[in-house]
Amino acid sequence: MAIIRKLGLLLAAASVLSLGLVARTEAAACKYNSGLAFRFGGHCARYISADTLTSGGKPKPVPSLPKGAFKVVGDSGVAAQHISLVTPTRMLIIDKAEANPPKLPDGTSAYNVEYDLVKNEYRVLEVQTNTFCSGGGFLPNGTMISAGGAELRRSRAFHTESGFQSLRMWQPCEDKSCGWLESPADPAWQMTGNRWYVSITTLPSGELFVLGGSNESLAVNRLATNNPTWEIFPKPAGIKAADYKPTFMQFMVDALPNNLYPNVYSLPDGNVYIFANRKSMIFNVERNEVIKRLPDIPGGPRSYPLTGSHVLLPLDPAKNYAHEVLVCGGSEAQLQHAKALQSCGRINLNDVDPQWEMDEMPTPRLMGDAIILADGKVMMLNGCKTGYAGFRHGNDPVFTPVIYDPAAPLGSRFTEWVPSNIARMYHSVAMLLPDGSVFVAGSNENSEDVPFPTEYRIENFTPPYLTTDLARPEIVSKVPEKVTYAQKVQVTIDVKDTSKYEPEVTFMLGHKGFVTHSTHMSQRMTKLVSTQGKMEGTSITYEVEMPPNANLMPPGPHYIHALNNGVPSIAVHLILN
Description:
Layout: H1 2-13, E1 21-24, H2 27-32, E2 37-40, E3 43-47, E4 69-75, E5 82-87, E6 90-94, E7 112-116, E8 121-124, E9 135-138, E10 144-147, E11 153-154, E12 159-160, E13 167-170, E14 199-202, E15 208-211, E16 229-233, E17 247-248, H3 251-254, E18 263-266, E19 272-276, E20 279-284, E21 289-294, E22 309-312, E23 324-328, E24 343-348, E25 356-360, E26 369-372, E27 378-381, E28 384-387, E29 394-397, E30 402-404, E31 414-416, E32 428-432, E33 438-442, E34 457-462, E35 474-475, E36 482-483, E37 488-494, E38 505-511, E39 514-516, E40 519-521, E41 524-527, E42 529-536, E43 539-545, E44 556-564, E45 567-568, E46 572-576
Parallel strand pairs: 36-46
Antiparallel strand pairs: 1-3, 2-3, 4-34, 5-6, 5-39, 6-7, 7-8, 9-10, 10-13, 11-12, 14-15, 15-16, 16-17, 18-19, 19-20, 20-21, 22-23, 23-24, 24-25, 26-27, 27-30, 28-29, 30-31, 32-33, 33-34, 35-37, 37-43, 38-41, 38-44, 39-40, 42-43, 44-45, 44-46
């Protein structure tokens, strides 16, 4: 045992995975259940991750649930096709116009609700236009904009006006007094054309970049239905709303037919990165100029209806805020029994010549969600192993989530966690909550006579970092409700206990975005620069510096977590502008 311990310490000193060996006889466990595997004594063994050590080689908190836990906590009322966290305790759940259990005052079915995350109950909302397959984003003041949707619908069970061109506004509140603001007949409240499966991204300017979509509801886009244009909201000053015209983008033609819900991220130089199908590019919105076409990602398509998972990895000032994008999964073809893709591609957009670095998930996955956890790791969950996106086209649900560690060596970045027992396929969603847990909902097969009918149960996933033997830190000082770029904020946290673990504190700032169809619009997170000040007992004050500019974190609502040895506090909400 002493020899093994010495070996572990030597590996830690070499910045490899360290401290201990665990025998594994299953090859899959050897490869995916915490990293780097090797043969030892005739068995498949692994090194325990260096995450169990502090940077100084001291032990970190030990979770009682090392693979986390799912728990059913509520009922969504409507199918959770889209979600958006509009306050720390309120989640908008947006469905299409369809028959759902809750009713509006006129007796027709509701298809939008506001969900109370504390009480786990919902409030039905009235909306005039069809929100089916819409997009969303936040303005700098925290107002959420929902845009696009589908056709007019009329039935005894529900009715709605066309939402193809609609803009809807939600001004958040905590007292249940807020509702959708709409004016469907006013050109100022319309986009320039129909946009079904539209992507929306908050730009550094605070404007919303509205991209793509199709002119009608369909299974897969084609040249005749394609809307290969972009526009800005709010519309430019000095132009009448009815006279504002969209701008053509050739890339959205080249990416056909799998170009719906393109993924867009703002970059440090003010440009944006755009991905659709297998293609990607760097684009300057202000000049309407393609800066650089990037290599196609190897493997099959990764956009609707062959939907993969996409995420901008957390930014780190120590790495010059390198912007790296991870794309995982997808499907090989638009066929009922087509196999989901198992490969992942990662590309560093700060490189002079960005190239895809390929990796492999433990399991093929289609229609999965990729969310950034409070500690900067990425959780991938939901989805299925065969088929493609669409009603009744997905099969073989994937119940087991995986965690992706961006800092781990290539080939040892994935770890499987505890499975759910609820199938989450088409129209499933997930989002990190301010308390560090994960909101999981949806799966809308649009029928009850199918193996996996529409799912209304809401789950909460507790990551291992919330189950450790170290009490959660608490932000005890008043954090300003509004902050500016590069502003230095005094933040006092209570680490609760220093007897077992020496404090090691970091701060993470994140934006939740708008989630639908495996597309997490504007989701991003960055580590913040912090300097320790005075310490009194278990209370420590830090000078925490906000991101230096809006290119790194566009303006709008954000949440700041303090982490002690990887254990996150409840996040504090603020407006960065």
